[in-house]
Amino acid sequence: MTATFALAAFLARWAPAIRHDLAASESEPLTLADLLARADDEDRARWERLNLGYPDPRGAPWLRAAVAARHAVLTADDIVCCSGAQEALSCTVAALVRPGDHAVVVLPIYQPAEQAVTSLCATTGVPLREEAGIWRLDIERIAAALRPETRLVVMNLPNSPTGAQIEADGLDAVVRLCRDRGIWLVNDEVYGLTTTADALPAVADLYERGVSINGLSKGFGLPGLRVGWAASRDHSLLSRIVVAKSRSSSCLSAASEVLAHVALKSEAAIRQRNRAIGQGNATRLRQVAARWPGLLEVGPAQNLAFAFVRYRGAGSSDAFARDLAGRAGILVLPGSLWRSPLAPVAEDGLRIGLGRRASEGALGALAAHLSGRAAAPAA
Ligand SMILES: Cc1ncc(COP(=O)(O)O)c(C=O)c1O
Fold first, then answer.
1. Which residue has a Cα nearest atom 7 of ligand 1?
2. What is the rounded CA–CA span in Å between residue 29 and residue 5?
3. CATH 3.40.640.10 placement within the chain
4. What is the pTM of this model?
5. End-to-end CA distance of the chain
6. CB of 317 sitting under 6 A from ligand 1
7. CATH for the 6-31+268-373 domain, from 3.90.1150.10, 3.30.43.10, 3.10.20.30, 1.20.210.10
8. Which residues of the chain, if any, have pLDDT below 50?
9. Per-residue model confidence as pLDDT tens digits over 276-325
10. Which CATH class for the 35-266 domain?
């Protein structure tokens, strides 16, 4: 059966009619001029003398060193750069899975990541567990899903769409489970820059068989650079990731390598800018939702890139989102887009993007639309 990608199909269906985008999960994109203005002399010289030959398939050593500097215990040799975080995840899974292996995937997860696993091996899905609006790893269910042939556990924490943060005790427990059995732990950490809680260690720092997937697409607001990476202390795995990558992008764009280096060196300032935008929009969302308590329920803020708002109105969140797109030109993402054949996930939520400057106006348009709906006589 041909795999489909529900989120991309939803965007393709509605994007032409949309005037207010609350679907994006990346922070306000930077322009080339913004980024170059942040370059120091070394990177400006690299940019001006850019050589457009094939770059190192692993990523330039200076770029990998800048990525490693974000980690507690890693060096440039522990990093392989890829064209975006999703390529890093797909290549990691391809490099790990052997015939007869089994995997556990924590749900919900980005559908291409789920399919990267299910296309290669038998897979058990284990949903996150919710308690009073807070989502956590269900360690007991993960333990129960493990088999003698389980090769890897794949998760996305901090999570989209729920916003679930990674909690220290849950992270320690899942590392212990994997370490006792020699299982690889792959975590997609792309939403780590915009969490409301302090960042916890990357799995590659904590665990010798941990692989941290990350990149510049989300919290840095640079998805157009297509720069991601896999970080691991296992160099044999990294070599196999490079082989898997040679079947797709081979190496990064040389221009993106320099721009990515500028962004990584400016991480603190970019993070501060993007968190301030997200913080303002999170407050605005809370104000809008407070006017319709029977319709939209906002839980504790967990990520400043997006919120997972529970839909409490009549009908499904999916029908509400389609109606909002069709009638008001406002795009939000229903939880049904993360539906999985592996296990049920929460479909009563709406992922509402908070990372963009334009989100503020879009939230105003949402409030105006809901007011108009409330004032309209019943059909
Ligand atoms: C959890 C998650 N991982 C990875 C990606 C893709 O990242 P990239 O564009 O860097 O490949 C997305 C994009 O929406 C995502 O939500």
1. 85
2. 24
3. 35-266
4. 0.97
5. 42
6. no
7. 3.90.1150.10
8. none
9. 999 999 999 999 999 999 999 998 889 999 999 999 999 999 999 999 99
10. alpha beta
